[in-house]
Amino acid sequence: MSPASPQQPTWDAVDRALEQWLAPQDEALRAATASADREGLPRIAVSPAQGRLLEVLALAIGARRILEIGTLAGFSTIWLARGLVPGGSLVTLELDPERARLARTNIDRAKLTAKVEVMVGPALASLESLRSAATPPFDLIFIDADKENCPAYLDHAVALSREGTLIVVDNAIRRGRLIETETGDASVEGVRAMMDRIGKDPRLAAAGIQTVGAKGYDGIVLALVGDAPRAAGDPLDILLRHDAWATREVLRACGGLTEEQWHRRFEIGPGSLHDALTHVVGAMLRWADRIDGPPTELRPSIEGVAQRTPAELLALLEAAESGLAASADRARARGLGTEFEVPLAGKTHRFTLGAALVHVTTHGMHHRAQCLNMLRHLSVPGISDRLPEIDPLDWQLQAEA
Ligand code: SAH
Ligand code: DHB
Ligand code: MG
Fold first, then answer.
1. CA of 67 to the centre of ligand 2 (A)
2. Which residue's CA is minimally distant from atom 6 of ligand 2?
3. Residue 272 beta carbon below 6 angstroms from any ligand 2 atom
4. Fewest C-beta atoms under 10 Å: which of 212, 232, 269, 332?
5. Ligand 2 pocket check: which of 75, 171, 177 to mutate, most ligand atoms within 8 Å of Cβ?
């Protein structure tokens, strides 16, 4: 192993400064570190600056469910759990019962017991049991246990993910040992094999970053889980994907219109192509918020405010599609029969999550038909005589082609 860097004192001092500016520790975090020292645990928890990074990442993605592999005394667990949205939860896996017990004490001191479950035992066994219990997907997964098993942890993490899940791997660089071949060191081999897998997995968009700081020279990998090749047998998946695809097709056709045509008034539906398609995307955003429910509040409506080009609306549709898919995943996890309240025009109604999702995906269909009619009436050669074919059958045929 390469010697400690002569730069280490600077890295330590900078990490202390970063901690003071951006990652101040409270009593609960300090007590967690002190307890680990008292019990003689290795000083391998994330630094405060890194802990704060984990918290900020969780906040950024609005994490509702977090999985951590490797608890130690619960130091990173506390940072991560503080990044959860209200009502969110975290599962952390620890081999050693003594460490798990200590972590529970520290988590309790941080007043996070209600949100955090510590599972004791070999992480591979705990991961198997999470998978066989059909646990809903996690939004963020932090891999930070023994490095030998990194390839297997990665596979389990992907299996416990949804589209949009963020996987963070600690200690990916290990003072540069990552690039050494045939070391005979299982932890180096483990990280290298994991890197090979990440690089080859078409579902993962990943970045590796070298870091220096109080923990020396190391690094992290961030992997974003993408689109899975799906069996496409699930009616809700089909509705969600077809709906977004069909709206995209209509918006593409509108890309060839003049501004006047895009805003031309018709005595039908919301009144123009711009207004009807803004309404379709606006409803996706609104229903995603309603489905997520308190504490999520409705975003400001996108309708009747700014005017957008078809390209701008397409970009907004992409965001609305992935947001709605994430809300649908969470709705599935809660049970599609779960009822929730929807205030509409001064009156409160009760819908099931399933009914809301069927509504929002078929609502688009109604307004797209109006759009096709408007496009036809515009009599634009190449568009009005070649209206997009957008029913689910066309979608299937196109996917086949
Ligand atoms: N995430 C912690 C540090 C974790 S250190 C923090 O930053 O605060 C790695 C932990 O993984 C150790 O506590 C170790 O006991 C645990 N571990 C090692 N092998 C394991 C395994 N096979 N299953 C579960 N946990 C394991
Ligand atoms: C080790 C493990 C860690 O999770 C870490 O952050 C640093 C070192 C180790 O096992 O040596
Ligand atoms: Mg680590």
1. 18
2. 44
3. no
4. 232
5. 171
List, for residues 97-106, the tens digit of each pLDDT value: 999 999 999 9
Torsion, CA 306, CA 311, CA 316, CA 321, rounded to 10: 150
The CATH code of the domain at 8-225 is 3.40.50.150
Amino acid code (one letter) for 238: I
Q: Is the per-residue pLDDT at 329 higher than 80?
A: yes
Give distance in angstroms: CA of 270 to centre of ligand 3: 54
Whether ligand 1 lies within 6 angstroms of the CB of 70 is answered as: yes
CB of 60 closer than 8 Å to CB of 136: no
Residue ranges, CATH 1.20.120.450, the chain: 235-393
For ligand 2, say whether the CB of 68 is within 6 Å of any of its atoms. no
Helix, strand and coil content of the chain, in percent to the nearest 5, comes to 50, 15, 30
Strand locations in 150-215, DSSP E? 161-169, 204-213
**What pLDDT digit, counting tens, does each position of 123-176 carry?**
999 999 999 998 889 999 999 999 999 999 999 999 999 989 999 999 999 999
